[in-house]
Each structure stands twice: as C-alpha cells, then as structure tokens.
Amino acid sequence: MRLGVTGLRKAWPGLTVLDGLELRVDSGEVVAIRGASGTGKSTLLHCLGLLDRPDTGQITLDSQELSSLSEAGRTAARARHIGFVFQAFHLLNDFTVRENVLMSARTAGLDLTEGRARASELLGRVGLGERDGDVRTLSGGERQRVALCRALLPRPALLLADEPTGNLDPATAAVVLGEIIALAKAEGSAVVMVTHDPEVARRADRVLELRAGRLA
Amino acid sequence: MLSTHLGIRWLRRRRAAWLALAAITLTVAVPIIVVGVMQGWLEVTARQARAAESDVVIVAPGVTGSNKLRDRLEQIPGVAVAAPYTQSWAVMSRTAGGEDLRANIACQVEGIDWAADWKLGRLTAAALHAPPVTDLSAPPLPADERGTGFVTQTWRAATALAGLQVASALGGMPISLPPYQRPRPGVVCGRELLYPHAMLPGEEIQIAVPNGAGGTVGRITAEISDTVGIGVLEIDRFLVLAPLPLGQRLGGLQAKDDRAARLSGWRLSAQPGAEPHAVARAVVQDTGLRALTWQDLRGNLVKGMEIQRNIGALVMILIQGITVFIVYAVFSTMVVELRHDIGVLRGIGARRRDIAGAVLWAGAVACVGGGILGWAIGWGVLAALNPFSRATGIPLFPQDVIYTPEAPISYTWWIPLLFIVTMTVIGLLAVLLPAWRAARVEPIDTLREGA
C-alpha cells in the first residue's frame, strides 16, 4: 500500500466536509473519486496533497505519517513525494516548456543534469519531445501533458489529479487520460483522480463516490 | 539555486522592473556626478592650499635665514627643499591716478627667494602669468605683456638702454638716448587682488607695513611685474610676493648694525610619500622651532569643503530614499502579478524562503545592476562635462565668481561604491515587505482561485 488514509475529518464552521474518511491506494493503482459539487472532493485532494490540514485523521504515504508534519516538512513532502495535475494546468508563463517540467526537480532539490534528461524522456513519452518555448503557445492538451510531466518528474509516490480533463475536448481528454494512467502505472505512482467525467471513471481501477464526508 | 533562477527570470520578464532599474540607475548616476564634482573641487582646493602653504611651514618670527640652517633643515628625514620667507600684513596703493584710484588695499606681502620657492613647487608655470581678468573668452596675454616673475618692464627697459649705451660707446657712434630711469623692484600680485581694482602689470604701487603707532615699519615703491593665481580665492585676493630683501625691509627684518637679516620662517616641501605631520614632528624635534603642516594652516578651508561634500552626499542619499517608494511599488505590484505563480510554486514544493529569496534576489539584481549602470553613466557624464563645455562654449560655472573654466572632477572609487551600497541596502529594505508578502502566499488559495 502506498497511500493510506484513516479517520480523516475536515469541517468548516457549520459544515462537516470529510467525516472519518478511509482510503487505501496501492502502487500503480488509479482511483477515481466522484461526487456532486460541494461534497468535498477538492478538499479531500487538498488534504491528501498536504495543501490543507485535516482536523483529525492520518495520512500515510509509504508508511510515513504525513498529516502531523510541520509546515516545512509538508512542503518538502509535496516536493519529493506528491505530484499534482490540475484542471487549469497551472503552468508558469514566465518559463519555457522544459523549464516548467524541470521546476519540480528544482523544488525537490534533484540533480539538474539528471532532471533535464528525465524531462526530455517524459516530454518525449507524451509526444512533446521537440516542443520548447513559451507555454502560452501550447494547446490545452499540450499544456496538460506538460503539467503531467512536471508532476511525474520527481517520481512521486502519489499523483493527485483534479478534473485533469475538465478543460479538454473529448478526443484530447481521452489521449491525455491515457497518458496519465500509463505514465503513473509505469512509474508505480498511486493515483487519485477527482472527476465528473464518466470516461475517466470507466478507465480507473476503482471508482469511489464521496457522499456525506465518506467514500463508498 | 531556485531563488536565483526565479528572481532573475521574474525581473527579466516584467516591464515594471525596468522602471525600478531606471530609477535606481538615475539615483546612483546623479549623486556620482554631483559628489564627483564636489570632491573634485575639494581635491583641487586641497592641492592648491598645500601648494600655497607648502607641506610644512616653520613659523618662527625672527629666525635666521642662514645657509647653515637651510642645510640643517634639508637634512631632516622627509624634508626635500627648504625656502625662506618673510610675511607682513601691509597696505597697498597706486602711486599714479586721482584720489579715487588711490584706494588702500590690504595685502599680505611675502618676501621669498624665487629660486628656492620655485623648487618648493609653489610657483608653477600654471600659477604664474595669469591675466588679472576672469573673462574666459579673453585671449591669453601676448608674450611681451606677460610678467616674468620679479623682472619688471622698467628693468627690462633699463637693461636694454644700458646695452645700447655700451654698444654705442664700443662702436664710437654716440647716439641720443632717453634719460636713464632707475628700475623699480618687481612684486608679483595675486590676480584676485588686482582684478577688483582694475590694476595691471607695469603699474607702480606703494606698499607700507604700519607699525600701529601712526608710522610704518617699512615702506617700498615697486612695480607690479607679474600675477600669480594659486586658485584659492582667500589667498589670491591678498597675496603679494616680493623679493626676500624687499620683504625683510618691509617687515623690519633687514640686517642692521651687528644683527643679521632675519625671517618670518621657512617653508618646507616633503619628500614624495612623506607625511607632512611626521615631517613637522621631525623638524620640531631637530630644531625646536614651531612647525605647522598645510592642514594646520588651511585645514578649515579644506574641512569646510569636506563638510559641504558630506552634506551633499547625505542629501543625495536622502534623494535615493525616494527611490525606495518606486522600488517598493514595483516589487509589490510584481508580487501581486505573480501571486498565481507563487501559489503554484508553493504547491509543487517551493519553500517560503525560496519565494522570499527570489523576490530579494530580483531586488538585489535590480539595485546592483542599476547601481553599476548608474556608475557607468555617472562617470561617463563626468568625463563628457568639460569636453561638452569646450565644444559648445557654455561655461559650467559663473565666470565672475569662479575663474576655473572647467569643472574639477574626481573619479574617486569610494563615491560610486558609497551610492551603490546605500542604494542596494535601501532597495533591499524596500523589497523586504513585498518578499515577506510573497512568502506568505498560501498555495491552496491561489489554486482554488485558478481552478
């Protein structure tokens, strides 16, 4: 088991979003999480990604307890063990395609020579081996591929994807989704995807429904 | 390093950063120009004051002027040349012209040994023969109108007459010659002494040293033979140089009965590299005479200019402070613009200190880069000032007040360094708050906003 979540609880004043949530994801496994708007899918993803602190509960990644880490420890864990793919891509416009991918090597403190080789390898695998330059000139699908490469460069134990195909047309979405799943499995990352897309859910290893703060 | 990588890229890609760079460049260049000229004045004035007073002055009224003492002084370690002098405050007046032209003019008469003073370095070619007018557009005086030290026009005429008399006697051809006039002794006047009174070389003057009881200690009639421009107004407006025996006569220091002629003191030049205070101490130890350095005598003048320069530098640093607001505004705007990117970076594992460091790096690069650019522009403008003035004919300073046609300029290294360092420190202080704000950006907030 790569990711283990037990008794996760997160509440806002007057609203309990996550209520004793349990989750286990194995290496290379792709779990899709569905749920109506406002059920706390993004909150769950933020807690798993150590961007937000749960009120109670434990998150373990490769047997390491993460939820009680300090701010600096959470930042370091995000850099080394967790990759993010967002619906809005969230690329850095001041940097080129390769620099965007390499940025996760810089934040993780990896060797930049190795990082460059790995960035080339990943970009080649998603068909962007020859592309560089301004990220603003890329199509939506290409941007999401670059974001995927950035997320996977440090070989994260956990890949979190928040509506990764939400901004893409169906054909591109299918290709990008295939690449996310293929690459994550090849890297042995545990994948948690939040989605409304039935196609994404269909291709996941498991589909869980978030309802009343729990996964079912 | 992540901070450096981010900081430099952010700076390069933002137009507002160029505004900060331009502001920093200007607020470094302008102080370098202003203080460079002030320092130039200071250095020139100090050099002139040092030349006017010589490195060390033995102030010992009544001291002997013997060659034995000169030899002894010149053997003291650090002493290069010793020159005797007398000094008396006197009243100068024209002998010709109406009452309205016979104004009594206060002056300080120095009796000097011309050859010794020349070796001392006081009487340089640049200082002598200066026209007693400050009109820069006036052509230089023709050679026959220029002075020649203590050699007067009447002496030259008398010498020529004597030569003709000898030639006519030897040739057996008597010729009719004008009556012989006894040549007058020559004195060299500071040009600012002559200028206000419209006096010129060749004029006859009387100089008298009052004795304080209605009479005089000494009185001479002389001819203005030349002018001297030390370059320090308070020296040039009073200085009259006279041959040593004339100075001794004016001051009542001439040989009398069994008493040898005396002096007001000796001027000494220090050997290259010798520190004037050390030389003065050695002189006191060796001779027991009172020895003062040029700083002791003209220190207030130089110190006054130093204070002016320091105030100027301080004002310039305060002006640099205004740039703080520009730098602060530019970097605050930059952080607001970059809020999304900072959130993303924090999300993928950039530490708070990486983000703060990036903003500080950008600030430091802008300050140091702008500073170096300002340095180059500042020194470039300083180098172009005088050629520009010459090429356009536009004087840099009012000619009636300052008779130096060109701006004295200093390229002292500490001036640009001072303003670059202060600009960098001030600039980094201005960037501290934006850097802190950047570090406080929460990734979850910006990622939610962008979703």
What does this structure look like?
The complex is a heterodimer of chains A (216) and B (451). Chain A is of the alpha/beta class and 216 residues long. Chain A has a single domain (3-93, 155-215), classed as Rossmann fold (3-Layer(aba) Sandwich). Chain A contains 7 helices and 10 strands. Chain A has helices at 41-48, 71-81, 97-108, 112-125, 140-152, 170-187, 198-203, and strands at 3-12, 15-25, 30-34, 56-61, 64-65, 82-86, 158-162, 190-194, 206-211, 214-215. A 6-stranded mixed sheet of chain A has the order 6-7-8-3-9-10. Chain A is globular, with a radius of gyration of 17 Å. The two termini of chain A are 19 Å apart. The mean pLDDT of chain A is 88. Chain B has 451 residues and is α+β, with helices and mostly antiparallel strands. Chain B folds into 3 domains: 2-45 and 303-450, no CATH class; 56-150 and 185-273, no CATH class; 158-182, no CATH class. Helices cover 53% and strands 17% of the residues of chain B. Chain B contains 14 helices and 9 strands. Chain B has a 6-stranded mixed beta barrel with strand order 2-3-7-4-6-5. Chain B starts with a helix and ends with a helix. Residues 132-141 of chain B have low confidence and may be disordered. The interface between A and B is medium-sized, with 30 and 23 residues.
Fold blueprint:
The complex is a heterodimer of chains A (216) and B (451).
Chain A: E1 3-12, E2 15-25, E3 30-34, H1 41-48, E4 56-61, E5 64-65, H2 71-81, E6 82-86, H3 97-108, H4 112-125, H5 140-152, E7 158-162, H6 170-187, E8 190-194, H7 198-203, E9 206-211, E10 214-215
Helix pairs in contact in A: 2-3, 3-4, 3-5, 5-6
Chain B: H1 2-13, H2 15-53, E1 56-64, H3 67-74, E2 79-94, E3 105-112, H4 114-120, H5 153-171, E4 186-190, H6 191-194, E5 204-210, E6 216-228, H7 233-236, E7 239-243, H8 244-250, E8 262-270, H9 276-287, E9 291-293, H10 294-337, H11 339-347, H12 352-392, H13 414-439, H14 443-450
Parallel strand pairs in B: 3-7, 4-6
Antiparallel strand pairs in B: 1-8, 1-9, 2-3, 2-5, 2-8, 4-7, 5-6
